[in-house]
Records
---
Amino acid sequence: MAKQYKTLGEEIWKNRVETISAELFIFTYGSLVTQLVKDYEDYDQVNAHLEKMGYNIGVRLIEDFLARSGWGRCTDFRETMEVVSKIGFKMFLNITPTVTHWSADSKACSLILDENPLNDFVELPPEAQHKLWYSNALCGVLRGALEMVQMQVEAKFTSCVLRGDDISEIQVKFVRHLQEEVPDPDD
């Protein structure tokens, strides 16, 4: 089944996605992070703001994902994460994270990003190296997109190559299924 997801993700990337220059996207994101650091001067606030921005993007991105992929409802959290990894990430970032480290109850896993285009051309200054989660917007995108399909999750980076770690890893934990609700206007 995972191969089917990967094939669909690759087909959508090649045939159905309008792309922009990767460098333009990467530099724009980098400029945004730089401005947030200047504005807040507190890495915890920058991390929170990046996650919140990502959440707002994810809330809107899910509609594009569903329209372009034609994907229906997933049966469980495990299938959802495979679809997110092999189709969603491929559609929007042209990468395919590995889904691994499943908990015994299949309610938590990790996405291992062998590559992360947001990290290209980036070197964190020493004072930010152990405080800033540079790609934290991705955690917000996951949370926002999955919330729109009635799945409340927690997503957080646990390691990042920009911080000197060997891998970049996002831990995703399923919290609960949501009822049809209107999103919180504060998010």
Note: The first strand starts at residue 98 and ends at 100.
---
Amino acid sequence: MLKQYFTVELEKYLGCLWGLALGDAMGMPTEFLTPEEIASRFGGKVQELREPLVSHPRAGCPAGAVTDDTGQAIALAKALITYQRLTPELVANALVQWAIEVDAFGKGFLGPSTAYALKALQKGATPAEAGRQGKTNGGAVRIAPVALVFSDNWQLLMEQTAIACLPTHGTTLAISAAAAVSAAIAAALVPGASVEDVLKAARLGAVAGRDYGYPCWTPLLERRLDLALEIISRYAERADQIRALYELIGVDMTVTESVITALALVAVTGGEPMPAIIEAVNMGGDTDTIAAIAGAICGALRGSRAFDVTLVSQVERVNSLDCKKLAIELLELRKTYMQRYSF
């Protein structure tokens, strides 16, 4: 079965999942630190898998361990593979069950919107009620499996993206951010796609995503992306572009910062996953999420051959992941939808 899937499609699917997991794992020990603290505490630029320091909230995690970012994405992927299409109830159940299995509540490894919503769901709130306050980036970072399955149908892609967000990140802001990421990944899967194609799709996704969810005040994310791209165009050197993103766009878990910075990193690094991940890991702030989003998009664009396989293998071993199997199952589901809807 594996031999029939050694194709460009599989390389892109695998690259997307590898980019997500590797970015998450490499960013795990540097999360919550400033760029200066990262350089000082780790002896320079982090370019490999490292253990968090003893003073870090994730102290005790082994080098290569992923966080809730990858965990939630895999939970969504498994729900999709089992049921073929998401509903708010399926997403809510998948996330609550995942949180229980990994003791996410006890370990404190959940973002604020997700933690609040999952506790509300456990107390009997409906998915629509639980996610009304979610404005952070948890919906955007777990959206890759949805993009991989529904990349050929814009309407389904947007609808399923919104549903995947609703139980924890049900605001127009959070869904707009997730839609920007899912649209970027979908565009990156197209053979011959360029960085410009990916960013154009992200912009369209940000606009379309605002048709879903509970209204909230927010800068328009497509305009925010325009601003980020204009800012980096002022500088010739990558280091200056990275510093400008940190200072002028930001690296916090709010989507107006982290998701836009992740998208801008795709441009800064020419869509190459390893440089995008490494730059994100050393930027400070919500490093694991920024690196996971940038890694997933760039991985879908360039494919699995663009990765350091030694690093990826360590992440899979430490977390008992089989990304190739998951990629094949998601690719098969996508082909099922292609046949059903004659994409």
Note: The chain is about 65% helix and 0% strand.
